[in-house]
Amino acid sequence: MGKKRGAQAPSGKGGGKAQQQQKSGGFLAGPRKFARDVRGELRRVSWPNREQLRQSTAVVLIIVLTLAAYVAVWDFLFGRLARLIFT
Asked: Residue by residue, what is the 3-state secondary structure of the chain?
C-alpha cells in the first residue's frame, strides 16, 4: 500500500550511483561510458601479427573453396539426375 505505480526501488548496490552518474553527465553520459568501455575491452584483445593473419586467411580460403567445390559437384549431380527424371 502506498506505493505508486511505476515507482522503482533501487535495484542494487550500484543502481542509484549509476543513475546519478547518468543524470550528472547529461544525455551523452551513456555513449561516453559505452565508448570508454569499448576502448578498455579493445586494449585487452590480443591482435594477431601479420603471419598469423596470413595463415588464418589461407585456412579460411581453403575451406571456403573446398566447400564451394563440394556443393558445386552435388549441385551438378542432382541437376543431371533431375533432368533425367523429369525430361
From this structure: CCCCCCCCCCCCCCHHHHHHHHHHCHHHHHHHHHHHHHHHHHHHCCCCCHHHHHHHHHHHHHHHHHHHHHHHHHHHHHHHHHHHHHC
Q: Per-residue pLDDT for 74 more than 80? A: yes
Distance of CA 53 to the CA centre of its chain: 20
- Is residue 15 over pLDDT 60? no
Which pLDDT tens digit goes with each residue over 19-69?
665 556 788 899 999 999 999 999 999 999 999 999 999 999 999 999 999
CA dist list (Å): 52 to 4, 41, 57, 65:
59, 21, 8, 20
Which amino acid would we find at residue 2? Answer: G
Q: All 3 cell numbers of residue 47?
A: 591482435
